[in-house]
Amino acid sequence: MGKNYEAEVYWAPTKKLGGGWIAYKSSSKAPETPDYLGAAEATGKSNLEAVKLQTEANRANQITPWGNLMWAQENSATNPVFDQKGYDQAVAAYRNQSNAQSGAFDMNGNFVLSNTNTSAAPNRDDFWSKGTEGSGKWTQTITLTPAEQQALEAQQQIQMNQSKLAQGLQGQVDTTMKDGFNGPDLNSYMGKVDEVPKFNEAWRKQGIDAAYNYSTALTSPLEQQREKATDVALRLQGLVPGTEAYNNAMSNIFSTNNRARQDAANAAIMYGDQMANQDFSSALAGQNQQFNQAQSGYQTAYTTALQKYLQPLNSMNAVLSGNQVNMPAFPSYAQQANAGGTDYMGATTALGNWNQGVYNRDAAAANAANGSLLGMVGSIGSGMMTGGVGTVLGKLLL
User: Residue 27: what are its φ and ψ, rounded to 5°?
Assistant: First the structure.
């Protein structure tokens, strides 16, 4: 085997057919497959930690003139939770075991018996639940000022008293409403209203007759006088009944009297109609008045009965709708947005792409170098066969 031409150029172990050596250049080793699963898990853990930090940033304690709003994380390293119930039970058991009648808490909050006891007293430090940072649930605690707390308890007591009063009124509501609402009888009010009046034809005829008789009683003597005066005047002129002149003159007098009587009859009819219409309008107005009075009386009775029916229910609702207990309003503040965790998955993908690019570049360069070396070896082999420079280079390479 020949010597290395370059640090990364290698010769084939045997000569090629016809003489000469085959040289080649090695390429870079293929990059290993990135750990995408590990990167995804690391990204998930980082995002979870970012969410925990975001949650913690948004748990701001608030102190106001009305009270305080405090946050605490249960079972965490920075905010352990004290088991007050367990500690009280341990103290009670310690008292019973020691048959002690008295004791007191020291400055650290530990209970110390006044007599001698061989067993160890409960230690408060043993009743704190500890865990890892951010491992527990968050608890929001609102503590009011003494004045606000007293007002709250007073309102709660008032509300409790109102509820008890409403419970007492429920019996009245049940008694009143169990059979449903029974309003007043409409017929008992409308039955007193007269029927719709009808047009009185007899009253109309009576009016016509009265008006006509009154008119003719005034005009008949005048007509008779007019007829007699005309007859006398015609006779003085030498005209007697049966003559054309006499008959025409008397006919005109009779026509005039007939027109007067017809006018009196027409006026009498109008008067009779007027009297009948006035009578009908008066009767209709009276009937409307009776209807309105009956309807008003029924509505008043219905409203009164309904109010009486709903009074127990309204009283109970009025008691229940009193002032409710309201908590103090705490000021709002800007919330921390989710910033996201470290993108291990993206970084791993980018690194894998970079390594693959470097590998592809080196492989292309090695392929190009191999092509050049093969061409060079071919030239050297040809020179060895013909002599000259090729012979000298062939000897050097051998």
Answer: -95, 170
Instruction: Please report, for residues 115, 180, 182, the alpha-carbon distance to residue 170 in angstroms, rounded to integers and kept in the order given.
Output: 59, 15, 20
- The angle at the Cα of 158, spanning 154 to 160, to the nearest 5 degrees, equals 115
The residue whose two tokens read 């109008």 is 270
d(CA 4, CA 373): 12
Distance in angstroms (rounded) separating the CA atoms of residues 167 and 174: 11
> Per 3-state DSSP, what percentage of the chain is helix, strand, and coil (rounded to 5)?
60, 10, 30
The pLDDT tens digits of the residues spanning 10-43 come to 555 666 566 665 555 555 677 777 777 777 778 7
pLDDT in tens, 148-202: 888 888 888 887 887 887 777 777 788 887 778 788 888 877 777 777 777 778 8
Phi, then psi, of 11 in degrees rounded to 5: -105, 150
pTM given for the model: 0.36
**Cβ atoms 330, 69 nearer than 8 A:** yes
The residue type found at 148 is E
